[in-house]
C-alpha cells in the first residue's frame, strides 16, 4: 500500500521514522512547531506530513538555527500539508544567509582574538573582545571625545 501524506502515525512510528525521541516531539509540540490529534486512549496521532516539519527542525538543529527562528519560518507555512520544494528553497536561502552572517561574526571575533594572542592585557578599554562596542577605537587611542573637546576649546 502506498503512503499518503494524510496517513496518520503514532508517536512511536514518528520516533522510529525520524530518530527523534518522544520527549523531543512533545517539546516541539508544546512550542507549536508540530501538531498532533488525539485518538483513542488519548494517544497522539500525527499526520504523515509532520515528518517534513520534523526533518526541517532536524536540519535547523544541525545548522544551529535557534528554534525561535524555526518557529518564525513555520509561521509562514501551512499546517495542513508538507512544506513543498519551493518552501524548502525559501527556508534554505534564509538559513544560508544566517550562516553567512554567523561566519562573518566568527571571522571578526577570530581576528580580534588574534590581536589578543601574546597581549594578555585584558584591558576594558583596549581589548576589542572585552569592549566590543568601542565605536571610537578606530579614531585613535585614549579618550577620543575628551581629546576632541579639548582641541575644540583651544
Ligand atoms: S587581551 Fe589585550 S587586546 Fe585583548
UniProtKB/TrEMBL annotation:
SUPFAM superfamilies: Putative DNA-binding domain. GO terms for molecular function: 2 iron, 2 sulfur cluster binding; DNA binding; DNA-binding transcription factor activity. This is MerR family transcriptional regulator, redox-sensitive transcriptional activator SoxR. The keyword Iron-sulfur applies. GO terms for biological process: response to oxidative stress. InterPro entries: DNA-bd_dom_put_sf, MerR-type_HTH_dom, MerR_fam, Redox-sen_tscrpt-act_SoxR. The keyword Iron applies. PROSITE patterns: HTH_MERR_2. It comes from Amycolatopsis marina.
Amino acid at each position: 500500500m502506498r503512503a499518503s501524506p494524510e496517513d496518520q502515525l503514532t508517536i512511536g512510528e514518528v520516533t522510529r521514522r525520524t530518530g527523534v525521541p518522544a520527549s523531543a516531539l512533545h517539546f516541539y509540540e508544546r512550542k507549536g512547531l508540530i501538531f498532533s490529534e488525539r485518538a483513542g486512549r488519548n494517544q497522539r496521532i500525527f499526520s504523515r506530513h509532520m515528518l517534513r516539519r520534523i526533518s526541517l527542525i532536524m536540519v535547523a538543529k544541525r545548522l544551529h538555527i535557534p528554534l525561535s527562528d524555526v518557529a518564525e519560518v513555520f509561521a509562514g507555512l501551512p499546517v495542513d500539508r508538507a512544506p513543498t520544494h519551493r518552501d524548502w528553497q525559501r527556508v534554505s536561502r534564509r538559513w544560508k544567509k544566517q550562516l553567512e552572517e554567523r561566519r562573518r561574526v566568527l571571522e571578526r571575533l577570530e581576528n580580534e582574538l588574534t590581536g589578543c594572542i601574546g597581549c594578555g592585557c585584558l584591558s576594558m578599554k583596549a581589548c576589542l573582545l572585552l569592549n566590543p562596542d568601542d565605536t571610537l577605537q578606530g579614531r585613535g587611542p585614549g579618550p577620543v571625545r575628551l581629546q576632541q573637546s579639548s582641541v575644540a576649546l583651544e
